[in-house]
Amino acid sequence: MHLPRPTRWRAFATAQYRPFQAIAVGQAFTASYASDALFVPLLLRLGAPPALVIVVGAAPVGGAALQAFAPQILRRLKGNLRGLTLVLALAEVRGFALAAIVAGLATGTVDVALGIALISITVAVGQTAGVLSGSNISLWTAVVLPEAERRLVGPRMGALTMALSTVLLLPAGLALDAGTRAIGLWAYGAFFVVGGVASILTPLAVWRLPRPGRVLVARETAAATQIPLAFRRFTDVSAIAGLGQGLVPSLSLYALSVLGMSAGFAVALSGVAAAGALAGSLAAGSFLLGGSSSRVLRASFLVRTLAALSCVAAMPANPSAPAFLLIGAALFNGAGNAGALATNERLYRLAPPEARVHCQSRFVGTTAAAAGTGSLVSAMALALAPPAAWGAYTALYAGSAISRAIATVRTDVSASWSSPPAPPIETAGLADGAG
């Protein structure tokens, strides 16, 4: 049993990791009060069709494929990874833009159709930049920090974000229901303002990352370092799983448009998902310091298969449908977060150190394109189906289960549950990022 060790958390809590702690806190507020948990019920309240909500939510997933161009962009920027990440991190404060749109809707100065369009564009562009920012922060830790510090920082950033998201989202459901009854759309605006203010921490913390934070990226040629065959197989399997990820319609969308639950339930559903993600992050983050990333990844695919089947069981005729949806959310996000940590470990363990930028950009681009394709299929299915046709949702959840099951079977795993330990953690200070 690998439980979180206080010594590792104490190491992460030291002053040298303050920027990463602040990034995690800022991302928690953005994820809670300026992302899916709120924009899905808001768009449905305004009358947006479910297919549009799926497309808006899918834009960041497919947009992450732009990470495939990271080597070319970094070469043009003379390797300034820190500067690129800072520009992308500015999108984390999009809560202010969303609050302004909601204020216009509440006062009648913005037409509903225009409001839906503005919210959709803000979310699609802002979350895409946020996803790319997160990918670059992960890349920064991989190519600038020493290996032991990378293994320490990444999982604990994720766990801190999920812990705070859980605390923020679970009571927010009741507050949103009460707020919308009392002050209407202004309740959404209040959450967006809080999210915008706290999210300022993210770009400020990125600004404090050690200088120069530059990474020299060589041009990829036939004579360059060959990408290992194991890495290619890993990417192919992850693309299959990514397709299944894209097929999953938003659980809060299903709860609102099919089961007829309240906006508060949808936000609470996101809170349960964050709690599941926290559990997965804590368990996997501790285990992966010396454990097999491939075996954790395969186990995460299996659990996500079960999560999709739980959502299949949440049909309207089932009186326990909300409970099955809550279970599905916890399993999806618990296994998803554990799988994301395992994926990062697998990626950086398989990728040669001198080719990490190329490998990471290729991997993220491939898997994001697969997930984006799945999301387009999901949006088309819901666009063609009647508004409350649970059969379309069920078929999509079943398709996701099949995709994850295939990924489970095809994942190559190590001979044991152990992996070579990371070097000792140095506490003298962060690397200067000479790259």
Folded structure, characterized:
This protein has 435 residues and is mainly α. The chain has one domain: Up-down Bundle (Growth Hormone, Chain: A), CATH 1.20.1250.20. The chain has 18 helices and no strands. α2 (18-33) runs antiparallel to α11, α6 (81-89) runs antiparallel to α8 and α12 (229-247) runs parallel beside α17. The longest helix has 37 residues, at 147-183. The model is unreliable at 423-435 (pLDDT under 50).
Structural class: mainly alpha
CATH H-tier superfamily: MFS general substrate transporter like domains
Q: Strand percentage, roughly?
A: under 5%
Q: What number of domains?
A: 1
CATH architecture: Up-down Bundle
The number of distinct β-strands equals: 0
Q: Which sequence of SSEs, written as H and E, runs from N to C?
A: HHHHHHHHHHHHHHHHHH
Descriptors:
0% strand; Growth Hormone, Chain: A; single chain; globular; 435 residues; mainly alpha; 18 helices
Structure in a nutshell:
This protein has one domain (6-216, 227-410): Up-down Bundle (Growth Hormone, Chain: A), CATH 1.20.1250. The longest helix has 37 residues, at 147-183. The chain is built from 18 helices and no strands.
Topology, please?
Elements: H1 6-12, H2 18-33, H3 36-46, H4 50-63, H5 70-76, H6 81-89, H7 95-107, H8 112-143, H9 147-183, H10 186-199, H11 201-207, H12 229-247, H13 251-257, H14 263-287, H15 293-312, H16 321-350, H17 356-384, H18 390-410
Helix pairs in contact: 2-9, 2-10, 2-11, 3-13, 3-14, 4-8, 4-17, 6-8, 6-11, 7-8, 7-10, 8-17, 9-14, 12-16, 12-17, 12-18, 13-14, 14-16, 15-16, 15-18
